[in-house]
Amino acid sequence: MTTEIKQISTPKAAQPVAPYSQAVQAGPHIFVSGQIPADASGKLIEGSIADKTTACCEGLKNILEAAGSSISRVVKVTVFLTSMEHFAEMNGVYEKYFGEHKPSRSCVAVKELPKGVPVELECIALSNSG
């Protein structure tokens, strides 16, 4: 069974600092771990919610490309916000990445996120072979 599960990793996205993978491919599905607004070195991104959401989306994009897939193959996104006051600004950036093919999405307000960031995104995508 372990041959059916493949860990995905790229130096173009922040590296995990705990026991998890950037993404895992299981059959035709790619499960991308939550991306916080950090660059590939792990440094947190400063700026607006738009800047931070862009960093999260770029992390998803880079991981999916490392898996041989793309943003256009995403079927489900979960957005975590520490305040729904950030929803409109986050959504404006989100639409630039996902507006054309409109995957299913959940957006939830949470009390806090790792490293005190205000936004995190995770997704499920199809591989190019799936």
From TrEMBL:
InterPro entries registered for this protein in UniProt: RidA, RutC-like_sf, YjgF/YER057c/UK114
Source superkingdom: Eukaryota
Listed CDD domains: YjgF_YER057c_UK114_family (cd00448)
Gene3D superfamilies in UniProt: RutC-like
NCBIfam families: Rid family detoxifying hydrolase (TIGR00004)
Record-linked PANTHER family: 2-IMINOBUTANOATE/2-IMINOPROPANOATE DEAMINASE RIDA, PROTEIN HMF1-RELATED
Family per similarity comment: Belongs to the RutC family.
Protein name: YjgF-like protein
